[in-house]
Amino acid sequence: MIDTHCHLDLLKEKDREEALKDERLEYLINVGFDKKTIKNAIEFASKYDKVYIAIGFHPHEADRVSDEDLSWLKKLAESNPKVRAIGEIGLDFYKNYSDPKKQEDIFRKQIGIARELGLPIVIHMRDAEKETIRILREERAYEVGGVMHCFTGSYETMKKAVDMGFFISYSGIITYKNAENLREIVKKTPTSRILLETDSPFLAPQPVRGKPNKPKNIFYTAEVLAKLLPNTSLEDVDRMTTQNAKQAFNLNGEVKKNTITYVINNKLYINLTNKCNLHCVFCQRERERNFWVKGYWVWVDRDPSVEEVIREIGDPKRYDEVVFCGYGEPTLRFSALKEIAKWVKERGGRVRVDTNGLMFTFLPKEKLKELKGLVDTFSVSLNAPDDETYNKVCRPAQPEAFNKVIEFIKEARRLGFEVIVSAVDYDGVDMKKTEKLVKSLGAKWKPRTYEVVG
Questions:
Q1: What angle do CA 111, 117, 122 make, to 5 degrees?
Q2: Residues 317, 319: Cα–Cα separation, whole Å
Q3: How far apart are CA 34 and CA 39, in angstroms?
Q4: Distance between CA atoms of 263 and 5, rounded to whole angstroms?
Q5: For the whole model, what pTM was predicted?
């Protein structure tokens, strides 16, 4: 796990030493927000390998920040390799400890420093959502990206920040009893953009609320996040947020690509191909070529062989389910799917195929019978209640594609397969009508949240 925002110099010495020795915490991003804490951050980073830093002037400091101070900040950032971001910087119109115009001026200048140095930024935003987003756009902050620290804003602001390439960092606030609205936003945040932080010694999570916070308490927040996200374990949250943090702060090292199989919540996913015969507007691959799914780089530059897949599966009974689901359409490799599924079933495994249901556009309907006894469940992405919506949202190359998906669902049901049909709550998709259609077909219904994958 990585605590992406903490203040080590403000911790009690025993709590700081505990965090530095805790092997569960791979890295700590220590944040300096004024002259004193910036100097302390530099000192801690020089002493401890696991400590990286973000340095910048907090909006509360804006009235006291001169151009000379900004030059000093820039020299520190460009000369110290442990500096991985400029921050926390931004706007705080709740307390207004500094003049709002001065806050904006210092904010803009620090974004300029980050752009000059090619460093991401860490944003403090309180009662200033519209102004913050406006300034980020005007100053072209999307060129460097960064982190919306301790996010408590609206869904609309979260979405705008993500669209500019920012990560969304959640703190112990998501554990508070009165934070239900924020938890709903967490559920809709792209999993490839979620970070966790403590902001220690502040904002202790609910189980230890009222006490000084410390980095190890990040696991309380992680547990809540795991419960909020579907099909997600604490292990998944650890892996996912750690990988996201390494991306956000350039801590990546070696990236394991060509992922053939990956495990999420004790289900083994098989990445059989990246080829797909749809171009859905909501699909991540269509928009940014970001292939991270809960900490896994789900992309292959070639289709793996049957032997390679089987070798990686091992004992299929170890998993609750073996799922054919990568970044492409598994039925496009029908023969390989059939052979691997047969191998899994012979060894006592359970098999699910996640599909767009377009198999009958390139294979005869009779081929589906060949999967009887080899596949337990088909999870079909329908994503629309009618042909017109389907063509707009899923953008198929094949004529009559929507009707082919409906035909696939009906035939799979007739042959006795369990069929789960899903739709993404994308703008323009009437989820109630889609659900009604799915239930009329006798299939199980599964709504999915836009931007949440894995």
A1: 45
A2: 5
A3: 9
A4: 28
A5: 0.83
* The pLDDT of residue 419: 98
Q: Closest Cα partner for 214 from 37, 442, 14, 422?
A: 14
Angle, vertex CA 300, rays to CA 297 and CA 301, nearest 5: 130
Each residue's pLDDT tens digit, 393-426: 999 988 899 999 999 999 999 999 999 999 999 9
Distant-in-sequence, close-in-space partners of 372: CB < 8 Å, separation ≥ 6: 415, 416, 417
Tokens at residue 310, please?
Answer: 């089987």
Angle between helices 218-228 and 180-187 (to 10 degrees): 70
Beta bridge pairs of residue 296 = 293
Three-state DSSP at 3 gives strand
* pLDDT of 74: 97
**Cβ-Cβ contacts under 8 Å for 23 (sequence gap 6 or more):** none
> Alpha carbon of 27 to those of 4, 84, 197, 200, 376: distances in Å?
8, 12, 11, 14, 42
Q: In 10 A of CB 124, how many CB atoms?
A: 24
Which two structure tokens, joined as six digits, stand for 70?
């900004």
- Tokens 């980073």 locate to 45
Strand runs labelled E in 185-260: 194-196
Residue 447 has a CB neighbour count (10 Å cut-off) of 14
The per-residue pLDDT for 283 is 82
| Amino acid at the residue 247 | Q
Rounded-to-integer distance, Cα 51 and Cα 46, Å: 8
Phi, psi (degrees; rounded to nearest 5) at 29: -95, 105
- 356: tokens are 């767009």
Q: What is the pLDDT of residues 340-399, one digit of tens each?
A: 999 999 999 999 999 999 999 999 999 999 999 999 999 999 999 999 999 999 999 888
Q: Per residue in 27-47, pLDDT tens?
A: 999 999 999 999 999 999 999
Position 81 scores a pLDDT of 94
Return the structure tokens found at 41: 């951050």
At 386, the amino acid letter reads D
What is the spatial distance between Cα 332 and Cα 373, in angstroms, rounded to a whole number?
20
Structure token digits, residue 414:
């007739």
Coil, strand or helix: which one is 413?
helix
- Spatial neighbors of 358 by CB under 8 A, at least 6 apart, are 277, 278, 329, 331, 396, 398, 401, 404, 405, 408
pLDDT tens readout for residues 132-144: 999 999 999 999 9
- pLDDT, residue 356, reads 96
pLDDT tens per residue, range 326-347: 678 999 999 999 999 999 999 9
Kindly tell me the burial class for residue 176, based on how many C-beta atoms sit within 10 Å of its own C-beta (0-12, 13-18, 19 or more).
Answer: middle
